[in-house]
Amino acid sequence: MLPNRMQLSAQTEENLKKLKAYTGITPNISARLAFFRSMESGFRYQLDERKLDGALVLDKVTWLGETALPTELLLKLAYPNFPSKDLMRAWAAHVEDGISSLRNHRSLIEFSKAL
Question: What is the pTM of this model?
């Protein structure tokens, strides 16, 4: 389903790194939370040539961890006709959408209250 190597946009990556500096939550964990938050909000990705230019290129297992199967299933349900490259872009768009509401928290306590 999703490709083995995945990356995000540079802006999203920067937001994840800032969040890590404030809360100590690693980018892969906060990306997982952001993805599910975006899916819950009803956001839907429209095909575009989104530039995934982040320097952090990780394998699927690192990005998704134990949420790999639910993540891929949700993406397939939401975007049944997308090939794997477009599914990766959709995943990146959902992480970008979800992190926008989480990126400004300055402490772990504040962050956990927002969830």
Answer: 0.89
Number of domains making up the chain: 1
Q: Pick the closest to residue 34 from 56, 52, 12 (CA basis).
A: 12
Q: What is the pLDDT of residues 45-93, one digit of tens each?
A: 998 877 888 888 888 999 999 999 999 999 999 999 999 999 999 999 9
Hey, what are 56's tokens?
Answer: 């952090």
CATH of the domain at 96: 1.10.1220.160
Q: Is residue 32 within 8 Å of 98, Cβ to Cβ?
A: no
The per-residue pLDDT for 115 is 67
Residue-range definition of the domain harbouring residue 40:
5-114
CA distance 58 to 101: 23
